[in-house]
Every structure is written in structure tokens, then in C-alpha cells.
What we know:
Elements: H1 3-9, H2 21-34, E1 43-46, H3 56-69, H4 76-82, H5 87-98, H6 105-121, H7 131-140, E2 144-148, H8 156-163, E3 173-174, H9 187-196, E4 203-207, H10 210-218, E5 222-226, H11 233-238, E6 243-245, H12 248-257
Parallel strand pairs: 1-2, 1-4, 2-3, 4-5, 5-6
Helix pairs in contact: 3-4, 3-6, 5-6, 7-12
This protein binds magnesium ion (MG).
Amino acid sequence: MNHNESMEREGKVAFPLLSSHNGTAALKRFLERHNYPALTPKAVLFDMDGVLFDSMPNHASSWAKVCTNFGLNMTPEEAYMHEGRTGEATIQILAQRYWKRPATAEEMEQIYEAKCRLFNACPEAPKMEGAAEVLKEVKNLGLTIAVVTGSGQQSLLQRLEDNYPGIFRPELIVSSKDVRHGKPNPEPYLLGLERTGLKPWEAIVVENAPLGVQAAVAAGIFTIAVNTGPLPESVLLQSGADLLFPSMTALAEALHKA
Ligand code: MG
């Protein structure tokens, strides 16, 4: 093994953050847990809502308002706990809890449509602070950039392109339309690996939601959580996050320093 290979084995060349104080310990735990010989990142898979766009306040308030109107009491805080689930899965959990029966296909459609109407009436969510800097650092490292989102909005690709020109490739975007099972199922992240042609030990995930972290961890990928919402850090750590940052800005700074 030459010097470069041995550096890469420790994640030093491809993703210098892993050589930092916290990174080294997190990497060791990760390799032991999955029984991988090395982590050699070639791509970063980004979640979208709450990572690339500061869209979660709009999602959470829309969900809470619409569900409560239908007799399915939901607070915005609870909406953050469901983030990443498909709309249908979220509605079914609430229907069982409050109606003591499954929601019908018609009810699910009604509620989901009402949620989308309200969400679309919200002012367009801004870019997440620090996200452009994170993308720049990742691009400078020569890593592939992909998106794995539970969202299925038609305008998704255009929005990504408008806000982050030249960063994303359409074939490297996994949306809710591409999968049968939403997060916390690993399917979206496994598809992300398939699209990038990589193994779990060749990618890194950036996620903000507990269920998203669970999905990435279940897919066997090193997962960086960014706590951009109101949940306590412990929720993200308990979901299995390998590293945690309080914001995308903090992650950008750590990447820049590493
Ligand atoms: Mg998210």
C-alpha cells in the first residue's frame, strides 16, 4: 500500500474532516459498527429540506394546520419528527392514533392535497444558510454530489438549479417518486448509492431529520447530522448520526478548516 492509499484508507485524502479530532473517533466507531475495512468517500448524498433549503418551518406549519383541521392533532414540533416520511405514511400514523382506523385513499389524497396547497401558498423557502459553502467545499474535494429527498415536488430540479447553479445533475437526484418506501426505510439512500455506482463505504450523507438519519444509517452510510430545526441534538444522535453539527454553516467551517 502506498502512502496515498494508506491516507485514503483513513479517509484523509478524500474527506479531511474525518481526520479532525471528532472525525477520527466517529470514523473508528463507524468502521467497527459496520465491519468495513475503510471509508473512502467518493460522493456526498444531501437531503434537501432542512439541509439545502430552509423549508422545514413551512412544511411543519402546513402539516400541523391541515392535519389538525381534519381532526388529526399535530403540532409543528411533531411534524419535525415525521420529516422524511412519505405524506401517506404520516397520515396513516395519525389516523390510527386519532381515528382508530386507517385513512382511506380518498382521505389521504384530500389531506395531502390540502397540505400541498397550504405549503405552496407559503413564501418560497430560502437557501439554507451555509449550504452553498458546504457544496463548494465538497466540490473542491472532487466528490460527486447527489440529492436524496422525500420531496416529490415537480419543480424540484429547477429550484435546485436556480439556487445552486451547476452543482446538481438530474440523474443524481432521488425523489419520493423514485422509491416505494420513504425514510426511515433505507431504500432512498440505497437508490442514491445505486445511481452514483458506489458502495455504502464510499459515500457520506448529510441529513437534518431523525428519520432521515435512520434511513442513511440503515443503508450503512457514514451520516453527518446538521441540527437545523428545533429538535434536541439527542434525537439525532439516538437515530445513529456519526457526527453532528449545529448548522450547515458550522459544517462548512469544519470542512474548510480540515
Ligand atoms: Mg430534511
